[in-house]
Write a structure and sequence with these properties.
It is a single chain. It is globular, with a radius of gyration of 22 Å. The two termini are about 10 Å apart. Helix content is about 35%, strand content about 20%. By secondary structure, the protein is α/β, with parallel strands linked by helices. The strands form four sheets. The protein has a seven-stranded mixed beta sheet, with helices on both faces. Among the domains are: about 160 residues, 3-Layer(bba) Sandwich (FAD/NAD(P)-binding domain); about 80 residues, protoporphyrinogen ix oxidase, domain 3. It comes from Micavibrio aeruginosavorus. This is Amine oxidase domain-containing protein. GO terms for molecular function: oxidoreductase activity.
Length: about 425
């Protein structure tokens, strides 16, 4: 979140009714502000939506949330039911096989040695440089690369370590082991155990609950089909649309040029008898695996009520910065790729009952050194004037949980 509000004026205009816009409005309404949201389309939610099919729910983007005390409080306040993951198992696809621990004995020994003895130089140009310095090449290829794929749909070499994974930052002269021990002595920001969860009726239910909360508040309004092409002359403005649209609105070329990872999310429904038994949350690809897909989430293995009895639901993630051209393929071609990969990894031998494909040319902002510089320039430039704010998945927190935590500061400047 960039910028600050003029807290002397209790009226706020928000552009965009995605998760960031709705969450901002919800927080501000609870603090006594009057809020109006302008949304150019006829629906709220942005990337997040849930389509109810005959076989079960199909998510357009995120399918789960990592819990925190703030997320649980938000769900409680919205009276929104959730389901907790039935499993914690996660896998990495390496050498064509699903592995709970993707590292060899030598790679684990190397990672441990580096973590214990390699002292930090302070700032690393990329996440890959950080990994090479503190856990070794093997861990980079088979642990960090899948992590980067799963969160950012990007390669570690493209990501700014401090921006993308700030909790991994190690003070100058300390080792990774030093940092881990020090962190364990610090009080947790969000007490209680964290777990994977989701709204009981799908991620779209969170958007619906926030929208209703804003619309039902006497000081809240959401105006749909309201395209804002020039900035309104108001005391408090929060722009929550994606970076390219935000850049056009505020006249910032550097914001318009923020790069995004393109993605396809495909929810696939199959008969459980047609593939290996699904156990765990899903898998991500290690470096060197087929780049046509980034990974697969086992929806019905993770949560209840995600598929009918004797059926399974999977979310296949394709694209990313390493394979952007797959978005140009027709749906039938995408389905062939999915079937081949499910056959290769999960021995899928049947026919998909239904495949719901969603394309996102600008899915996830690339948390690169360029983005860090851009955010710093915006903080000193357009956002330096009181009453001007930017908030979205490109302003420092890409996750639903992280944005929820960040939004707590809104209106309390």
């Amino acid at each position: 979140m960039l910028g600050r509000l003029n807290t002397d004026v209790k009226e706020v205009t928000i552009i965009g009714a995605g998760y960031a816009g709705l969450l901002s409005a919800y927080r501000l309404l609870n603090l006594g502000y009057a809020v109006t949201i302008h949304e150019k389309s006829g629906r709220a939610g942005g990337l997040i939506s849930t389509r109810q099919t005959d076989h079960g729910p199909a998510e357009a983007a995120a399918h789960s949330i990592r819990s925190s005390s703030e997320i649980l409080r938000l769900f409680d306040d919205l009276k929104l039911d959730y389901v907790a993951a039935k499993t914690k198992k996660k896998f990495i696809l390496r050498d064509g096989k699903l592995k709970g621990n993707p590292l060899t004995l030598w790679e684990m020994f190397t990672a441990g040695s580096y973590a214990a003895f390699k002292k930090s130089d302070g700032i690393y140009p990329s996440l890959a440089d950080w990994a090479k310095a503190h856990i070794g090449e093997g861990a980079l290829d088979n642990a960090i690369t899948p992590l980067a794929h799963g969160i950012y749909a990007a390669e570690p070499e493209e990501l700014d370590q401090q921006l993308a994974f700030p909790r991994m930052s190690i003070p100058m002269g300390q080792t990774l082991v030093d940092k881990v021990f020090k962190d364990k002595t610090q009080p947790k920001k969000s007490p209680g155990k964290s777990f994977v969860m989701a709204p009981a009726k799908g991620m779209g239910a969170l958007i619906n609950a926030l929208t209703q909360a804003v619309q039902n508040h006497p000081n809240g309004r959401v105006i749909f089909n309201s395209a804002i092409e020039t900035l309104p002359d108001v005391s408090n403005l929060i722009v929550t649309v994606p970076a390219p649209a935000a850049g056009k609105l505020i006249g910032s070329n550097i914001l318009s040029n923020i790069k995004y990872a393109p993605m396809i999310t495909a929810t696939v429904f199959v008969k459980t008898e047609d593939l290996n038994k699904l156990e765990g949350i899903g898998f991500l690809n290690a470096r060197g695996e087929d780049k046509r897909i980034l990974g697969v989430l086992f929806n019905s293995s993770t949560f209840d009520h995600r598929a009918r009895e004797n059926y399974a639901s999977l979310s296949v993630m394709l694209g990313g910065t390493s394979n952007p051209h797959i978005l140009q393929k027709a749906d039938d071609e995408i389905k062939v790729v999915i079937k081949e990969e499910l056959n290769r990894v999960l021995n899928f031998t049947g026919t998909e009952l239904e495949t719901v494909i969603t394309r996102w040319p600008n899915a996830i902002p690339l948390y690169s050194p360029h983005l860090r510089e851009t955010l710093e320039n915006l903080e000193k430039g357009w956002c330096s004037q009181e009453g001007r704010m930017l908030f979205g998945n490109y302003t420092g927190e890409v996750s639903i949980r992280g944005m929820c935590q960040t939004s707590l500061a809104l209106g309390r400047e």
